[in-house]
Design goal:
It contains four helices and eight strands, in the order αββααββββββα. It has 140 residues and is of the alpha+beta class. The C terminus is likely disordered.
Amino acid sequence: MIDVRHQISAVRRTVGKRVLEAGEARVMTISQVYDTDVDDLWDACTNAERIPRWFLPVTGELRVGGKYQLEGNAGGTVERCDPPKSFAATWEMHGGVSWIEVRLTRRARARGSSWSTWRTSTTTGTSSARARSASAGTWP
């Protein structure tokens, strides 16, 4: 069973703003260290068989340009993929769109551990059609 207090304390969270082609966006970033190597963490985040262990069942094509659907939740399009370092996708739900960007890095100070950073950017009132033509950009 998960120790909820420990898990909440293990995650670093930040909130900010950035400008996208679609307009000003709110940005939420969450980061956490995992006691595994970056290749295993990549597989846990991108393998349709493993994703339901920590999130929701996913269907679709998990490749650049592919469409995905989380069971009972959002779907979207995979926009970028650089295994085992990063990927980006749209997050489309109820007519709105946000963008997710994920970076995985090896931790130099802790052998066998990896750092995961997930960033979500959302513009106010962005429709799916408008967002598809907008660029999520890249991290600075």
